[in-house]
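Question (not urgent): is this output format expected?
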Amino acid sequence: MIPVSSLDAGMLYVETEEMPMHTMGVLLIEPPEGAGTSAMELVRDALEERLHLIPPFRRKLVQGPLKIGDPYWIEDPEFDLDKHVSHHVLPSPGGRLELDALIGELAGGCLARDKPLWEMAVIEGLDDGKIALVAKVHHATMDGGRGAALMGQLFSTQPHGQVPPPEEPWVPEAAPTTPWLVADTVRTLLRKPRRVAAAATGVVSGIRGRGKASGGPAQKDKADKPGLFEAPSTTFNRALTRNRAVGLCDVPLEDVKSIGRALGATVNDVVLAAACASVRSWLLSHGGLPDRPLVGVVPVSLRKEGDHQEGNRITVMRVRLPMDIEDPIERLRAIHSATQSGKKGHTRGVGGGGSGGALKHLADILTNISVPLVLSELLGSYALVAERIPPMWNLVISNIAGSPVPLYFGGTRLRQLYPLGPIQHGAGVNITVLSTDGRLCFGALACKDLVPDVEDIAAGFEEEIHRLKGLI
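Got this back:
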């Protein structure tokens, strides 16, 4: 058995029916040649052939009585691939409208906890003849960086690449007995005070480290960072319902890179600027702009080269999104300046006191000052106050590096891969982009009752990239 880390466990404890904590990928692949193999057979065979390369897909959760003890990952002794793959056919005419509606329905449901935390829907009936695969994976099992790395195991760089056989046969683990879980629960409760003390020490060390590093430049960087409750309230900063909607688009990756090169910015800066412009346009058509910049949360990977640990290895950077700036290039330059300041703060914090360490220590404290059952209830009740307190951020914007070369799945070519990240009470929009096969694929997930026309945000992102390209 593998213990679930505090940060990953937090992803489990905060989940409610209104706030599922899975990530999603919408994959568009070419149909198989000939009529000998159905789409379901192709997907199932490809998954079965590669399951030994993706350990998280075989692991399920186990936890002690009353959800008091720590959770563990265990090789599912009753693993059944057929319980994870479903088949759907789009209603006529099978266009983007119908596809987006079905993806929204799939996004709204939580993953069942009695089996490994992933599912894949095979969708046929698209008007362009492609096949859509919609993968749902719980955020507790992996972050975006690890998910992108696993693409190397799920896909091949050759149309008919050989899959290496498993080094040894897969042997499922026996489920722990009730007496063992009871004893582990007691051990967990006894260890909690020591864990809280260690995490608190880490937080204090981080604060002291930042204090020693403070000075002229550091003070400026601190001033450039948004305050804790600085984010203004918007129409999508409310409590969530169970309804979801998605907006998808893709643009040439080279266009995004060329904009960055011409203006001295990074790909991530361009993504943030285009997302800022798109949300700005949406707000203008839904009541007007707030009186101060929005605050976006940008996940930052802490994985070093060769780091293949499961779970989450991330921190976050909070960035002001200047809604008041109308000029596209000026807006991009302002965002570039903000991200540069944010990166300096992360660089100074590497080792002991950075925000990555602080996020881990905070998760350690929250998961150890109480028991999972009580913590889940407390965090779930946040929906009751989400509309009564200022939001800590307005939306999440993620940029994940995908494969620079074409990928194949079961002999069929992957053409687009649209990522979708989870949303939280008080922040009802998530924007995630991922590059694949020369395209930058954009996915926006939103609470449908807060943002019913999220496809307009996707369209605005595409329009802003074209606008910036025309200005350089």
